[in-house]
Amino acid sequence: MNTGSTDPAAAATAAHSGGGEGFVELRGITKRFPGVLANDDISLDFRPGEIHVLLGENGAGKSTLIGILAGMQQPDAGEIRVRGASVRIGSPRESLELGIGTVFQHVLLVQSLTVLENLMLGGAWWRRIDRDAALKRFRELSELLALEISPDALVGRLSLGQQQQVEIVRALWRGEGVLVLDEPTSMLTPEGVRELGQVMVRLRDEGVAIVFITHKLQEAYAFGDRISVLRLGKLVGSIDKERLSGMDEQAVTDEVIRLMFGSTEGHDQDAETLSGLGHRRPHLSAERQAEEPCLNLRAVSTQGDVGECPLQDVSFSLFPGEILGIAGVDGNGQKHLAEAVAGQRLAAQGEIFLEGAKIERLGVPDRRKLGIRYITDERLGEGTVGAFSVAHNVVMKEIGQPPLWRHGISLWDRIFAHARGQIREHDVRTPSERTPIGRLSGGNIQKVLLARELADDLVGEAKVVVFNKPTYGLDLQSTRFARDRIRRGAESGLATILISTELDELIELSDRIAVMFQGRLAGIVENGEGVEREIGLLMTGAAAA
């Protein structure tokens, strides 16, 4: 890699007067990880006054490229030029000093601090904190972005859209150059997406270069001036500004699908998923609604470690065949809720009933025997052991139990045969049941988790299943597989809790949607027209409408 230039601040200052067409120019960027070529000779320009959309499946190389721009990773080859000067971005601080601000998918603000306190974090320890100067800068950026947020407001009391606006202010705090937005709209309501779009347009018109990473084609069409598509680490094509301006939404969709998959044939479902237009599941039938609840939580609270958000007085009922979606900004108690239902975390207060029987004192094995299953969001580590084979991981929660063990002796022929059956049924792409699971893709690891938790032949019938972010980080095919599996389970009578950071996913799959806010259940709404607005209000802690 070319490392020939100067310190970042000097490069940014010296380059104001000259350089190439792009504020940031990437030339031949290559990044390797063990067994993976994440970025393969990528060359891109990010130009002032332009919203440049980056599209591509999970694993296409977008996150790696953004990590390089943010100074979190170093390329193995290639050159980065900022305002015409060749630079090495050695750290996130150097990235900011060069005028590159990054807003990541998940909010990184400190919820218990005010807006201004968050913006002042990270300054040099030897400098005196200058509140007046910080207020002046905040007012400048608020005027630029047309924000109406008090600098003294607690961040935890802001809506997700407002928190993202504060993140944008923080990204621009040291100067307006390049703003990188990494999947910023997953849990935004339509109103929040529109507000973010207005902010991007204002910044673009002020000459800021905006890099907008999304997986939603509607957003790419609505906001993009230029679209580039990555596939398997390569830049496979772009739609430039002039051409894009003459295309309608369907033409853009067809072109992006062609670039992502090589053709448009047979990819109608991919287009639906990318556009957020998946078919909504029919609501729970009147017959099912008349049944007794399968699961009841009554005033359940948990205890949390430092930095965690425990549950506080959570109550709800879940019916057979129902999918109850759980929405909210990540970190508002969703993990504790999943673990409290599964038995991984015992309730500090309250009661949990499964088909009328109290289970809050039972651990994971006993709850599994009664029919409760949990698919964790941490696929490697908590969900599976990467160095163990697929077969080991499929039976991991039944070790020592018949019919695959007898008197403590492993019956390997039966274990491997069972694993092969699950691999076929769930279409797990693996060389063998003996392959270490850590070598599989995220989508195939997720299929193994589904096979283990939903199989009835070893531990009995599943009655309640908790999915925690089941499609996060998956490619389109694996996303569709997981969503179809969730639907099929509910149609067979399985009571389902679906925790997701994708609002489109919750609206597509759920019968009702509950919103978590600071460990409490802010409210539960019936899925239907206009539900996005109700969810948006609840995500701020407002009372249910």
Mean pLDDT: 86
Radius of gyration over C-alpha positions, nearest whole angstrom: 25 Å
CATH class bucket of the largest domain: Alpha Beta
Low-confidence stretches: 1-6, 8-20
Number of domains: 3
Please name the CATH architecture of the largest domain.
3-Layer(aba) Sandwich
Note the main sheet: 6 strands, mixed
* Strand arrangement across the biggest beta sheet: 6-7-8-3-9-10
How large is the count of helical segments? Answer: 20
Assembly type of the chains comes to single chain
Helix amount, in percent? 25-40%
N- to C-terminal distance: 56 Å
Structural class: alpha/beta
In the CATH hierarchy, the third-tier topology of the largest domain is known as Rossmann fold
In percent terms, what proportion of residues is strand? 15-25%
**What is the β-strand count?**
22
Give the name of the CATH superfamily of the largest domain.
Answer: P-loop containing nucleotide triphosphate hydrolases
What is the approximate shape? globular
Give an overview of the whole structure.
With 545 residues, the protein is of the alpha/beta class. It folds into 3 domains: 8-275, Rossmann fold (3-Layer(aba) Sandwich), CATH 3.40.50.300; 281-371 and 461-545, P-loop containing nucleotide triphosphate hydrolases (Rossmann fold, 3-Layer(aba) Sandwich), CATH 3.40.50; 383-460, no CATH class. 34% of the residues lie in helices and 22% in strands. It has 20 helices and 22 strands. The strands form 5 sheets. It has a 6-stranded mixed β-sheet, sandwiched between helices. Strands 16-19-20-13-21-22 form a 6-stranded mixed β-sheet, sandwiched between helices. Helix 7 (190-205) links the parallel strand 7 (178-182) and strand 8. Helix 17 (442-454) packs parallel to helix 18 (476-491). Residues 1-6 and 8-20 have low confidence and may be disordered.
